[in-house]
Design goal:
The chain has 274 residues and is α/β, with parallel strands linked by helices. It is built from six helices and eleven strands.
């Protein structure tokens, strides 16, 4: 009887250790990407490889090869497109997708609480009405901007941007040093909504005039965490380790998997031989 008890305890210990050693399941991210004006064919793969290298994360891709401002993205019209995912990344350039019903379907998962990450031209997508006219909160025009937390209408020439992280107290940018990009587009800010918190600003000198706009921020969208950056036009920027580190941290923060020091919580850091 005593032998049987010892065997049972030993088996229980083995099972307990086995469960304790099992890492958490990878986060599941859906990357929506495609449209006008960018090398999305290359950037989708750069992002997938770079993010999966940095976190316990699996990135699936919903891609359109269309090179226009109304790309036939696979998600369009399907309000359940994010079912089974922990986070949706928007990197589409779709300024001329203006149908409120289509926009509502894109927003549906986020309205249901799924976190969002938005890169570069996502800020110039799903626009209704004059882009440079401030959209009133609660209006149909403001639907996408309220999700983002910021309204932008355009950008300047492709020139270096000096990114200042000093005002950001979030763990997303903790320890980040000032960064001067290569030739990039500095997006303007028509308005920043009260739900948003700016983490970094970008400065760009154009014809002796210095433009200064928010380039990294977070947003509280109906309780869902949203991270955005307007940086990321050129492949060289997207492939930069600093950019991939920033986006990875933003994604982990959105999924509540980033600790106060800016590191992934246990089980969500890089996975060996992934």
């Amino acid at each position: 009887m005593r032998t049987l008890t010892l065997i049972t305890l030993a088996l229980a210990l083995v099972v307990s250790r086995s469960f304790a050693a099992t890492p958490p399941k990878p986060l599941k991210a859906l990357l929506v990407i495609g449209g006008c004006c960018h090398d999305y064919a290359a950037q989708k793969d750069i992002l997938k490889a770079g993010l999966e290298k940095r976190a316990n994360l699996t990135v699936d891709i919903a891609y359109s090869a269309d090179k226009n401002t109304a790309p036939a993205l696979p998600i369009l019209g399907n309000a359940d497109y994010a079912k089974g995912y922990d986070v949706v990344m928007h990197d589409e350039c779709s300024a001329d997708i203006k149908d409120p019903a289509l926009i509502a379907a894109v927003l549906a998962p986020h309205r249901a609480g799924i976190p969002g990450v938005n890169l570069h031209c996502a800020m110039h997508s799903y626009r209704i009405g004059p882009p440079a006219t401030p959209a009133e909160a609660g209006s149909e025009r403001a639907a996408w901007f309220e999700y983002l937390g910021l309204q932008s209408s355009g950008h300047g020439p492709k020139l270096p941007i000096v990114i200042d992280f000093s005002m950001g107290k979030s763990p997303i940018v903790k320890g980040f040093a000032e960064w001067t990009t290569g030739n990039e587009e500095l997006y303007n800010n028509i308005q920043v909504y009260p739900t948003a918190k700016v983490l970094a600003r970008g400065k760009q000198v154009v014809k002796e005039k210095e433009n200064d706009f928010a380039v990294v921020w977070t947003n509280d969208y109906r309780g869902a965490r949203v991270f955005s950056t307007t940086i990321g036009h050129n492949n060289e920027t997207v492939a930069d380790a600093r950019y991939l580190d920033l986006v990875t941290r933003g994604l982990l923060w959105a999924c509540k998997k980033l600790d106060d020091s800016g590191q992934p919580v246990k089980g969500y850091g890089p996975v060996a031989a992934k």
